[in-house]
Each structure stands twice: as C-alpha cells, then as structure tokens.
Amino acid sequence: MKRLYINGKFYAGELNGVHRVADRLIRELDARLAALPDDGRAEVVLFVPTRRTWTPNLKAIRIVEEARGHSQIWEQLILPSRAKDGLLLNLCNLAPILHRNKVLMLHDAQFLFPDSSYPARLRWGYRLLTPMMARTSKLVLTVSEYSRQMLDLLGVAPRANTEVLHNGVDHMLDTPADADIVGRLGLPAGRYAVHIASAKAYKNTVVAFDAFADPALADIPLVLIGTTREALTGAGLTPPPGAVFAGRVDDAGLRGLYEGALCLLFPSRTEGFGLPPAEAAMVGCPSVVSPAGAIPEVCRDTALYADVDKPEAWIAAVRAYADDATLRDGKAAAAQARSGDLTWSRAGAVLADLLER
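and the corresponding structure tokens:
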C-alpha cells in the first residue's frame, strides 16, 4: 500500500494566497480519493498543528494533529521521522531538508529579486534554504512556465526536475457576489476600476496612482482593495484624488466588486502566476495588465497590456475600455473563456498524476 504524507504546518498561519492554493489542492486530492473504493486508495495522512487557524473538511485523507506542528523546528526535525516511510508533499514553499523522498511546491523565485519587499531576515533565509530544499526533493512543482524558467536560471531548481501546476480560479464561483457592495461604496456600476493595492515595490501600485491622478480618468473612480491609506502613504505612495478604499473584503465582496467593475488594474513588475486577473476573468471582468512575469502566460490575449513605467499607457487602456463597449465586452468574454481552462479539478488531476508517477 502506497503512503502519502502531507505537510499541513500552514494551517497554523493566516489565510493568504499560498495557503489557499495548498488547502484547495489538498481538498481536490481528497475528493479524488473519496471517489475510489476503499481497497483502491493510497493511504494519505495530513499532519496539522494542534494550534491552527482552520481545519479542512476531508473525507478520505486522515488528519493527524501535531502538538508542535506550527513550528519550524517541527517541520525540519520532527516531520522527517513522522513521514519516513512514505512520500511527503509540501505545498507552501517550505519543506524539511532531511526528508529526501518529498515533493516541494515553490510558487516563484521572488525572494531572489532585489525589489521583492521581503524583510531582510526572511529573504536571506529563503535564499539559503530554498535551493537546499529543492535539491533534496524528488520533484519540484511551480505555478507557471515563467516560474519554472526562473527557478532554473537562478539555480534554485533544475528545469528537468520541475513541473508546472497552474492554479485554479473557479473558487470565485463558490460564493455568491455581495450584490450591495457597489452601492455601499457609492460607486457608479460599470464605471470604476479595481486595483489590489500594495506597498510592495514589485506590485508597482505607483503607476496606477500616477495614471489616476491624471484628469483624463477623473470620471472613473479607482477602488483600492486590501490595504489602507495609511499603509500606502507610510510607504511613500500618494493615492490619487477620489480613490475609494474598500479595505479587506471577503470573497463575496471581491466577486461583487469584480462583477460591477469596468476593469481590473494589475501592473506588477513580476508575478509567479498572477491570480487576480484570472479570478476577475472568471466573473466577467477584463483587466489591464503589465507584460511581465507569468502574466502574459496566464492572460494571453484576454487583457489590454500597458508598460510598467508609463502611466499614459494605463490611461489609454482604461479609456479604451470606458469608451468602447464592444472592445470591453469582447475582452471580458475572451477572459471568461480562458479562465475556464484554469480549474481546481484540473489542477488536482495533474497533481494526482504527478504524485502517482
């Protein structure tokens, strides 16, 4: 009987993008296992911390609690012995170096870039440990061909030992949209732009701010999600006049804002995948994006592209959507069709096949 262990240390952390991906992949594996007869299943064990933030609802994967499962000491020194008789799956950029029969998922090589915005201690920790984790893995997974290439070129993980597992985005359909959020924020339906704002340098929020400070976009409010005015100004950014701060929104609020928007702005200088444009596409919202990182790989021809350093290009793209309904509707339809290729069931099937191999 084959035995698979899953590193669930991340369940002790906050619910961020990497953790959401890991949790969803685990649930997809569980659904595939639950569809098999009992005597046809591999034995799969998920180690989770006793002190955890949330717990997945699983049918076929056995959950085992670990009292120190939230700590790096547990991950590096105790987990290898817990999983010594099987294959160990690690989905959140970290894995025990001492366990050699393992699969590691690395989302990107961002920690090696000078504008990564990682704290220095964390950045150097990743630079030291990640190549060691990758070299001691049977297989490295990543989320795009771009990330696969960068991990290879930067000496983290050889391309021949890395496989691409695209994210799914159909989780956007799991929660009904908040039908009132557009009205509560006083926004004109279909005539505002959305941006996931960030103080991180590589997210390049500054070019969106410069574009919307121009009078040419005065009739289109910019809605900022995920942070506060104080956090942005503290990082030296100046939000444009009339910017609307939606703050942190839940899944229903995010879907409601996407569905009511003219477009999403995604000006990152690099991305390992670029989830927001794909999520917005799933519910019919087209994007203006930068031609950087994995963004063209994910968006293809479903978005308008604008240079990372040219606010005038962002102005022109947003105005094109605002002034040409046929263009916008065409991009929205193409984007929605493209997002249909990025499903969690497909990601789960690819993962299952790779683990079986």
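(Above: one complete record from the training split.) The chain is about 40% helix and 15% strand.
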